[in-house]
Every structure is written in structure tokens, then in C-alpha cells.
Amino acid sequence: MKGIGKTLLLIGATSDIGRATALIYAEAGWDVLLVGRRRVAVQREADDISARTGAHVMVHELDILATSRFEEFMSSISALPETAVCVVGDLGEQFRAEQDLEHAATVMRTNFEGPALLIGLLAERFAARGSGTIVGISSVAGERGRASNYVYGAAKAGLTAFLSGLRNRLSRSGVRVLTVKPGFVRTRMTDGMKLPPLLTAEPREVAQKIFAAAEGGRGGDVVYVRAIWRPLMTMIRSIPEPIFKRLRL
């Protein structure tokens, strides 16, 4: 396929949503730079996407927890992409996080610290250029703390707030900052969970929403993959705390 001269930077390339998003962009004629923790796994995804679409797909190895390497990573990119999408996330185990500080720290750093710091570096370079789109994948879990996943939810709440502040600061810079909240998604991370069909998206559905919002301007700055999540989360946020404490969520 002949490229259109635009590049997507996809951070979290071996995740189900990451793979689907990279494929959507490649099908649209974009070059793709895949970034992930294990080069062999990232290269496998790159080879598959290239074979399916004919797109030019590059790879880079980077661990989202290796924050000391972020500046080096940025310097290694030959040209800034037009769009950067960060889909990094780790649900972790709530009960384990309550007992194991190292596990809790990993969940928090994977879902907030690492993505926020890397997105921040990208944003500064995009702002200096005066253009670009940044997409961060957050979660409805960050809208109100629930007993079943508040460590993960707290980290995603931090990322949501970071993206909101960044969007506010860069609103006149020519840089767009989007927050995407997929809700439940049928992925390896949720394998084995009983998910409600009405609220559960497929990875390609999420990818299509990302592309439509980032490149088509559809969905606004904060995108719920399934529209039902917006009123549902408004209702959950409005429940008085004395009542909320009695709910098993």
C-alpha cells in the first residue's frame, strides 16, 4: 500500500487494543512506529501488520517503567509522528495490591506515572512544532473509586486528570489531546471475567473510535467507546457517599 506520508506512534504495541489500533492506521495508509517492552514480540506484530496491509511498520523497544530511558527514546525518533497513541495499561490484582506494596506500585506506575511522563515529553515536542494529536487511553474505573479495583482506578484517575490539564494548557498550541475511555473490552486482560455484553467492546471497535476521534474529529475531547458509559458514569458519580459505601461495586 502506498503511504500517505503520516506516521502513528503506538505505545503498548502488543496489547489487544494496541494491535487493533495499529492495524486500523496501517489500513488507512499510515506508517506505524510500534513501541513495546519486548522487541521480539513487537517485531512479530510489525511483521503481521506489514504483511496484511503493505504499510511501513517500524519497531522500538521501551519499558514504560524505565522512565530514565524516555529522553533517549525521544532522541532516537528520527521525525515526530503526526499522532501518538498510548494504550499502556495493567489491571493488576486488587487484593494482591492491598497486601503487596511492590505490586500496587507497579500498577500505579504502569497506568499513570510512565504513560503521563512519556506523553508529557511528546507533548512538549508537539507544542514546539505547533501540531499533533495525542491520545491517552484511560478508564471509566478512574471516575469513582470502587472497592473492587481502586488501585487501578486511582492510577487511571491520575492519567485522566493529567490529560485534562495537558489539554487545557495546549488548547491554543495546535496540539490536540484526547482521552479515550473504553469501558469493558474483551481482551487478554479481562479474560475469564463475566462481562455485560451491552457495555463490552471489542478491540477493533475501540481502535475505530480512536481513529475517528483523532483523525476525523468525531467524539469530542473525551471519548467513551460505547455511548452508554457517559450517562452511566454520570449516575454513578452522583450517588451520595453514604449510599455508595453500602454498594458492592
TrEMBL record:
The keyword Oxidoreductase applies. This is Short-chain dehydrogenase. NCBIfam families: PRK07102.1. It holds the Pfam family adh_short. The lineage of its organism: Bacteria, Pseudomonadati, Pseudomonadota, Alphaproteobacteria, Hyphomicrobiales. PROSITE patterns: ADH_SHORT (PS00061). PANTHER family: DEHYDROGENASE/REDUCTASE SDR FAMILY MEMBER 7B, DEHYDROGENASE_REDUCTASE SDR FAMILY MEMBER 7B. GO terms for cellular component: membrane. Keywords: Oxidoreductase. Belongs to the short-chain dehydrogenases/reductases (SDR) family.
